[in-house]
Amino acid sequence: MSSRARNDLTEGPIFxxxxxxxxxxxxxxxxxxxxxxxxxxxxxxxxxxxxAAAGLVTQFIWLSMSLIIMFRTGAEIGVAQNMGKxxxxxxxxxxxxxxxxxxxxxxxxxxxxxxxxxHLLRFFDIESEYLANIAQQYMAIVALTVPFNFGHFVIxxxxxxxxxxxxxxxxxxxxxxxxxxxxxVFIFVFDMGIVGAAVGMVVAAVFNFILKxxxxxxxxxxxxxxxxxxxxxxxxxxxxxxxxxxxxxxELLLFTTLFMVITRLITSFGESAIAAHQVGxxxxxxxxxxxxxxxxxxxxxxxxxxxxxxxxRLRTTFRVSYLFMAGYGAVIxxxxxxxAPPLISIFLxxxxxxxxxxxxLRIIAGAQFLICIEGVATGSFRGRxxxxxxxxxxxxxxxLRVILCYALAATALGTSGIWLGIAITMAIRAIWMxxxxxxxxxxxxxxxxxxxx
Length: 453
Hints:
Layout: H1 3-6, H2 14-46, H3 48-84, H4 88-121, H5 129-142, H6 146-162, H7 166-189, H8 194-217, H9 235-267, H10 271-308, H11 311-338, H12 340-345, H13 351-383, H14 388-409, H15 415-441
Helix pairs in contact: 2-3, 2-7, 2-10, 3-4, 3-5, 3-6, 3-9, 3-10, 4-5, 4-6, 5-8, 6-8, 6-10, 7-8, 9-14, 10-11, 10-13, 11-13, 13-15, 14-15
């Protein structure tokens, strides 16, 4: 079978193709979660302050993800839709312009994080000078991962749009295993503490980026036969990448910014609340990281079929995807709720911190089912180039989240009020997206379009 046939998502059994496409992405998401949990575990041996410091810095790395997702989404949609239209040269132009922009912006962002880290961390109004110092140390090193993350995430999107998610999965897995192996060595054997955890992340990010550059230029099943890393900028392609990607990037940027506002509220309840929240979020990512991964696979799958005008195939894909993610969501929601105490106890030992963490997981568990099936609607909208719709729903609910969290935290609920505000707005956003998607797909034609080979 030719490379093109293997990666053509417009023909063949829908579930098999979608499952094979999505499984590596979801597995990568689970490995990233495992990696984050492993880092938290090792840092917890140094003390809860180290867990809290790493969690605070991570939120600035999330800010960089708003730009990463912007370029990745634009490149992935451009590649997927043009491969569906049988226009590989146009697909390559999106891939090249997206990658170049990502690396440039990633470098600028990293420099800004390093130079401004002291001022940026003051946002959280950290009372402990000790906690502020170790957070600054960690941030100075972790910021070096950003340009490489920009590059390798966009390449992953390019491969996804092409229909090959296996190779990025293998490379991501190798990088994550390397990071997991190096972290305890740098922390304990070389006695580098939290700086050691950051150095391990840098080494893994560089390793990941180098291997993916090799994959784009040398691997036998690469998306494009001839791929130049540096080309003349095509401003038309750049404009379209930004048109698709800016709504997604703005959504994540505002989400992270508003979440940092909520984190500042959490810091007012003390170091235990910060640590419990950070650990709880990592455990919770078993659902939202997988939902995000499935949404990414849906973007590529829907993108190719949308480009090919396969309307009947699109509708079947929606039904299959909702059933699959509903099953996963039901399982993970139950696990998080039932096993909250032992899960939190792996990372925290203080009874007060454990109690706060268990409260977080049990309140948030009810929304995880909806979050999982929401990923289907999100990926569908993005694959069809309608990136504005998920962004509108997300931004609106994130603004509402801040209002609810502050209002409920001021009551006798305390931190539980914050967790409740987060869960309620998660549910509202998911229901909004599912209803909007149901209404939107009714507008598609019933008969398939004809796309010439």
